[in-house]
């Protein structure tokens, strides 16, 4: 029997703008979960301009805001379950990029 896959290890948070831009550019099929202290997390495609720190530097780096990167929505749902207990496992989706 094999051990269950730990999806949390497939997520990454990159506070450095250059590393974050590199991840977005090298993972075109990737997903980003935008986390805000005042609203539910929102799922975006890596290519979505709403999670581009160059376009929205102040908004995306404001206190309490985070961008969690992953290749799959399952990995991000796992992250939400561990890091944001009590949050819904159903992720809201960005209406602009429709991930």
Count of beta strands? 5
Shape: globular
Q: Secondary-structure element order, as H and E?
A: EHEEHEHE
Secondary-structure content class: alpha+beta
CA-atom Rg in angstroms: 13 Å
Strand content: 15-25%
Low-confidence stretches: none
Task: Report the major sheet.
Answer: 5 strands, mixed
N-to-C CA distance? 34 Å
Would you tell me the overall average pLDDT?
88
Q: What is the count of DSSP helices, taking H or I runs of 4+ residues?
A: 3
Instruction: Give the proportion of residues in helices.
Output: 25-40%
> In what order do the strands lie side by side in the largest sheet?
1-4-2-3-5
Topology:
Blueprint: E1 11-13, H1 17-26, E2 31-36, E3 39-45, H2 57-60, E4 66-70, H3 73-83, E5 92-93
Parallel strand pairs: 3-5
Antiparallel strand pairs: 1-4, 2-3, 2-4
Observed structural traits:
99 residues; alpha+beta; five-stranded mixed beta sheet; 3 helices; 23% strand
Task: Report on the architecture of this protein.
With 99 residues, this protein is an alpha+beta fold. 25% of the residues lie in helices and 23% in strands. It is built from three helices and five strands. Strand 2 (31-36) and strand 3 form a beta hairpin. The longest helix is centred in the C-terminal third of the chain and has 11 residues, at 73-83.
Q: In a nutshell, what does this entry contain?
A:
This protein has 3 helices and 5 strands. With 99 residues, it is α+β, with helices and mostly antiparallel strands. It has a 5-stranded mixed beta sheet with strand order 1-4-2-3-5.
């Amino acid at each position: 029997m094999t051990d269950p896959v730990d999806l949390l290890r497939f997520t990454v948070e990159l506070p450095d703008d250059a590393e974050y831009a590199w991840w977005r550019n090298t993972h075109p099929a990737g997903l980003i979960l935008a986390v805000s202290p005042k609203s539910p997390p929102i799922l975006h495609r890596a290519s979505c301009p709403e999670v581009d720190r160059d376009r929205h530097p102040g908004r995306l780096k404001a206190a309490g805001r985070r961008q969690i990167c992953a290749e799959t929505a399952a990995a991000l749902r796992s992250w939400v379950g561990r890091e944001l207990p009590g949050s819904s496992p159903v992720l809201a989706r960005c209406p602009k990029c429709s991930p």
